[in-house]
Amino acid sequence: MAREFRTVGVVGLGTMGAGIVEVFARSGLPVVAVEVDAAAGERGRTHLEASTSRAVKRGKLSQEQADELLGRITIATSLSDLAGVDLVVEAIPESLDAKAKLFAEVDKVVGEDTILCSNTSSLSVTELAVRTGRPGKVVGMHFFNPAPVQKLVELVRTVVTEPDVVDDVKAFAESLDKVAVVIGDRAGFIANALLFGYLNHAARMYEESYASREDLDAGMRYGCGYPMGPLALLDLIGLDTAYEILETMYAESRNLLHAPAPVFKQMITAGLLGRKSGRGFYTYE
Ligand code: CAA
User: Where is the 3-hydroxyacyl-CoA dehydrogenase C-terminal domain positioned along the sequence (predicted)?
Assistant: First the structure.
């Protein structure tokens, strides 16, 4: 019989973590959101409140529904608060060491049947699975930014994932109104493996003053119907995250398409991370 996921946990309340919490809470699930950094937890709470009140203003939710949605979310600072959940999604920054350590810790706290998922965009899910005592119950569950809007979830199965775990998490993702695709454990999975060659190329064109940033973006928006141009999208993703993804894919494949354009490192060093720092290719209020 298929597993039911009645309560869920999310670790990390950055851009992706907060979006994933919102996805779960919108679908009626109680969510325990763990963020060990209290200031980041506050930012996550503000993000969730802002997103919910935007939905009220746009007439998508009543004030009562928004209050109920926020009431389903418990923000905690200790992993021990995950003890009773059926599924955990890890959404901390892209560091294999930090994620591996976290998986080993969460493994000790949750029940033996709890499924552990990582929202990693390019790191090895197998490396995370083997740090736990339940490698067969670990999968990648990769959401896209903004998580409440983008329909895709990539489910990453490793060579040791139990097949019924993949089936159950796929059914769960579909119950969240997402489209789920299943892929093996290769850096970049499907969407990023295809997308980041293009984004990297756009960053190089910008670096070479091939065209202005506005015209590079307009070219893809109005010529190809993309919802946003590549430089605006890089600002949304975060230049640090984009750089990590490119580096990981390049290290695995040595495909020059993914060798990060030098401008990434320069902008990151200067603190220009995109929307989250107020400035990237563009400047934000
Ligand atoms: N959280 C929640 N909802 C949000 C949101 C957010 N951060 N941003 C936008 N929305 C919602 C709005 O509330 C609105 O909802 P309704 O239609 O229900 O009212 C809807 O999205 C459209 O928003 P806007 O009208 O404000 O703006 P828009 O039409 O210009 O769309 C966009 C904004 C959704 C970001 C759109 O430009 C888009 O889809 N861009 C492409 C994003 C993309 O490619 N993402 C993938 C990045 S790669 C990745 O994430 C993988 C990785 O590992 C890095």
Answer: 188-284
